[in-house]
């Protein structure tokens, strides 16, 4: 069964209890037990819930994994997963990692004695050089947020395996429809399911997917202990959103190509960061490990005044945090996704005050271009 069909008729397409063409919302906190010695599959919803289990099975199957854990947010997925490491452990992390992950690593996990070294992960030699005897994990995003840098996942996974460390990949931008890191040798795939997986800007959720059952059980233990699991309502909505993932990603990618072609002609646009451009330094690597280039890109403008005008006057692309919705979303990384990164460090990473990120939705691209032209004065 091909991926597009599995999105509709996958692991949990029909409820086995009733024949309903969707898993119901089990809005339940506890379950009756019939034996003191042998509890049933479900006992308390912090640990297990049938609706959450359905979305976990769906995402695991799409990523080609053996186990998926669904979390109350993308950051809950990231931080719970990072809790598998111990004081004294060291992590190698891509340089322009999402600001929330950077904040957690540098202000929380560092206090716990888990140190991180940030490297340009587009260079495999830089990853290799940063590994120490105490290194236990490699954390990557590709394409990265917000500069869309590309890491060779096969090469990075091979380095991790050589050194016996765990490789973790944030696959939020691509989704399993376009990129499946487990198939490339990676150990853990992370998602902010809030974005493209759900796709309707009405849910906060996250996922961690693994191929190794023991590794999955380690994450599951921490999830249950901390109570970071996803609720049934949000599980249901995410299951619904996933069914349209193919058509949303395909249409948004087409719109993205149209808008970028237009932006390339605008004198006020000084740079565009998108792996779908042949001029992008990671274009060929990305094309070899993914089935498309996605619907998120960033671009730089010539002045801060024009940047503010675009963000504050756009009528179709919503000026907001997040991405991956049916509506286009304009974000300002300097004060949104990477606001927690110190200014000097942010600028060193190339996240300037004139950088804008655009997640392209399902509007007619001509209308989006007309709106952008009005705001940019083109």
Distance between the termini: 47 Å
Q: Helices and strands, in N-to-C order?
A: HHEHEHEHEHEHEEHHHEHEHEEHEH
Broad CATH class of the largest domain: Alpha Beta
Give the overall average pLDDT. 95
Q: Please give the number of β-strands.
A: 12
User: Based on helices, strands and strand pairing, what is the structural class?
Assistant: alpha/beta
According to CATH, the homologous superfamily of the largest domain is Type I PLP-dependent aspartate aminotransferase-like (Major domain)
CATH architecture of the largest domain: 3-Layer(aba) Sandwich
Q: What Rg is obtained from the alpha carbons, in whole angstroms?
A: 21 Å
Helix content: 25-40%
Stated plainly, the CATH topology of the largest domain is called Aspartate Aminotransferase, domain 2
Shape: globular
Going across the biggest sheet, name each strand in turn: 1-7-6-5-4-2-3
- How many discrete structural domains? 2
Spans with pLDDT under 50 lasting ≥5 residues? none
Number of helices: 14
Beta-sheet strand percentage?
Answer: 15-25%
Largest sheet: 7 strands, mixed
């Amino acid at each position: 069964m091909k991926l597009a069909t599995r999105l509709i008729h996958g692991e949990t397409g029909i409820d086995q209890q009733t024949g309903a063409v969707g898993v119901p919302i089990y809005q339940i906190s506890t379950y009756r037990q019939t034996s003191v010695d042998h509890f049933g599959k479900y006992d308390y919803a912090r640990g297990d819930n049938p609706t959450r289990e359905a979305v976990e099975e769906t995402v695991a199957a799409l990523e080609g994994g053996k186990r998926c854990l669904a979390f109350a947010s993308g950051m809950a997925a990231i931080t719970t997963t990072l809790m598998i490491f111990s004081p004294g452990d060291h992590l190698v992390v891509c340089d322009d990692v999402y600001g929330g992950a950077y904040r957690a690593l540098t202000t929380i996990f560092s206090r716990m004695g888990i140190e991180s070294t940030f490297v340009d992960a587009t260079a495999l030699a830089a990853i290799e050089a940063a590994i120490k005897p105490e290194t236990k994990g490699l954390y990557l995003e590709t394409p990265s947020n917000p500069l869309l840098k590309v890491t060779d996942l096969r090469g990075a996974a091979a380095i991790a395996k050589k050194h016996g460390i765990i490789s973790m990949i944030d696959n939020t931008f691509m989704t399993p429809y376009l990129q499946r890191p487990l198939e490339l040798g990676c150990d853990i795939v992370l998602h902010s399911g809030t974005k493209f997986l759900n796709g309707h800007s009405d849910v906060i959720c996250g996922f961690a997917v693994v191929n190794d059952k023991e590794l999955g059980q380690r994450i599951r233990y921490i999830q249950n202990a901390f109570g970071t699991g996803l609720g049934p309502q949000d599980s249901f909505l995410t299951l619904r959103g996933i069914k349209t993932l193919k058509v949303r990603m395909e249409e948004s990618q087409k719109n993205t190509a149209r808008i970028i072609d237009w932006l390339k002609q605008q004198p006020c646009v000084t740079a565009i960061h998108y792996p779908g451009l042949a001029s992008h330094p990671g274009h060929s690597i990305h094309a070899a490990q993914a089935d498309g280039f996605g619907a998120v890109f960033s671009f730089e403008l010539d002045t801060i005044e024009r940047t503010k005008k675009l963000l504050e006057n756009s009528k179709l692309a919503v000026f907001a945090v997040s991405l991956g919705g049916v509506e286009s979303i304009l974000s300002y990384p300097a004060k949104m996704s990477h606001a927690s990164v110190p200014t000097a460090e942010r600028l060193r990473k190339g996240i300037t005050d004139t950088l804008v990120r655009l997640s392209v939705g399902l509007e007619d691209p001509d209308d989006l271009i007309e709106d952008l032209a009005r705001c940019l004065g083109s």
